Amino acid sequence: MSYKRTEISSEELRVQEGFMAKVRELNASRENKPLAFVDTYGCQQNEADSEKIRGMLAEMGYDFTRSEREADVIVINTCAVREHAETRVFGNVGALVHTKRAKPEQIIALCGCMVQQPSAAERLKKSYRHVDIVFGPHALWRFPELLYGAVVGSERLFAVDPSDGEIAEGLPVRRDGKIKAWLSIMYGCNNFCSYCVVPYVRGRERSRRPEDIIADAKELIAAGYKDITLLGQNVNSYGGDLGGETDFSELLRMINDLPGDFLIRFMTSHPKDAGEKLFRTMAECGKVAKHLHLPFQAGNDRVLKTMNRRYTRSGYLALAERARELMPDIVLTSDVIVGFPGETEVEFEDTMTLIDRVKFDALFTFIYSPRKGTPAAEMPDPFTREEKQRRFERLVAAQNAISAEKHASYNGTVQRVLVDGLSDDADFPLTARTNGGRLVHLKGGRALIGDFIDAKIVSSNTWALFGEAIGADREAEK
Ligand code: SAH
Ligand code: SF4
């Protein structure tokens, strides 16, 4: 094939397998199986990366613990999207001085987007000397080599060189659950929204081969997974780097055609590349969940332009309308930023009217956080934190009312839901998700976990639906 590939070679991966074997040998000679603690901040991509880190750790002979004190290896997978996430990481890492003092052979590793930023790596190097290994998203596949280095040596190891990024296929994975699974279809981002750090830390867009994705999907379905979420920063541009052979809609169709009873979800869609072909594919594919997460970020054209989002308010509204025309019961969710530099009160009103027009089922609302190195961080930002907070609260209150109303419209309906776990509500002890991804607290027996069932929705609030498994009494009697 003629397109440019950016894959880590099998020779390089074999070298890493060699390091895994060495660590496994060292661990096998220990009296008790060593323990690892993996903590994850941020988005689903990070969750998926942590599953690979756990996979590699398991291969290297580690068991897992939720206690930092007990752990022989601590890995913290960090996020850089907002300052708040970084502050929390630095706070928690600072506190690990004590666990390390009590257990000097403990190895502390930090990875993920935050550490890929030179300023954060520098700060860790200078002021967090108890951290042994620091590696960015580009060096994830080299974790075995780094861990081996830390186990046998005493030098601190930093693998945070800038890179456009590559693809490492075939890393071991240890998944968190048995029902829902993440499946990365592409990495990186080319969009450079002016507020966002992701393109700087995760490199350029690169798509996995369709055949590799299909092989993973088949494996997940065979293992009994019922809910598969395809991951990418902008899944709609999937395949652009594969010479246009397979685009995202075609990939969806290929997975939809696999035999089995399962649902396909995906995140995130960028409005500039979403449209008719995607919506038709979603409408036609029975296994593709009728849920579209389509971040709009701002309702005003000047702000959208300054954000470098490359669509307009009317363009966005037309997309939402078309998606609803083709899929009347689609669940629409979105992300929005409040307080982008220079966004005026009048411009913010455009965000308020947009949510009123679209009536999203749910909205993820963020107050703008300046990120070093991004264009927006250099823009004049005259509005105070209090002003932004006030707008944020108005927006959240308006959306809460919309979500509550949307949820109320489910009352009395029967929904096919996937039962996915236990809730902490004694009256509705199970959790489930509708096809559109809405959370349901459910009455019914544990045996239903992992099944698609029909549920009668009996009540709702802003955040969730409450329902009863139809035939649950009979199930319980069995
Ligand atoms: N690739 C995805 C989103 C990745 S980040 C997309 O384009 O939709 C997830 C969300 O965090 C974004 O949608 C945005 O709403 C928010 N976000 C990103 N950078 C931010 C910043 N600097 N300040 C506040 N929110 C931000
Ligand atoms: Fe960030 Fe924009 Fe890329 Fe999403 S599309 S990751 S918001 S730069």
Shape: globular
* Number of DSSP helical runs: 14
Alpha-beta content class: alpha/beta
Q: Give the C-alpha Rg.
A: 23 Å
Task: Give me the CATH architecture of the largest domain, please.
Answer: Alpha-Beta Horseshoe
Strand content: 15-25%
The CATH topology of the largest domain corresponds to pyruvate-formate lyase- activating enzyme
Helix content: 25-40%
CATH C-level class of the largest domain is Alpha Beta
Question: How many strands?
Answer: 19
Strand order of the largest sheet: 2-1-3-4-5-6
The CATH homologous superfamily of the largest domain: tm_1862 like domain
* Mean pLDDT value: 96
Give a short overview.
The chain is α/β, with parallel strands linked by helices.
Write up this protein.
With about 475 residues, the protein is of the alpha/beta class. It folds into 3 domains: about 150 residues, 3-Layer(aba) Sandwich (Rossmann fold), CATH 3.40.50; about 230 residues, tm_1862 like domain (pyruvate-formate lyase- activating enzyme, Alpha-Beta Horseshoe); about 60 residues, Beta Barrel (OB fold (Dihydrolipoamide Acetyltransferase, E2P)), CATH 2.40.50.140. The chain contains 14 helices and 19 strands. A 6-stranded parallel β-sheet has the order 2-1-3-4-5-6, sandwiched between helices. Strands 15-16-17-19-18 form a 5-stranded mixed β-barrel. Strands 7-10-11 form a 3-stranded parallel β-sheet, sandwiched between helices. Helix 1 packs parallel to helix 5, helix 9 runs parallel beside helix 11 and helix 12 runs parallel beside helix 13. The longest helix is centred in the C-terminal third of the chain and has 24 residues. The radius of gyration is 23 Å and the shape is globular. The relative contact order is 0.08. It binds S-adenosyl-L-homocysteine and iron/sulfur cluster. Iron/sulfur cluster binds next to helix 6.
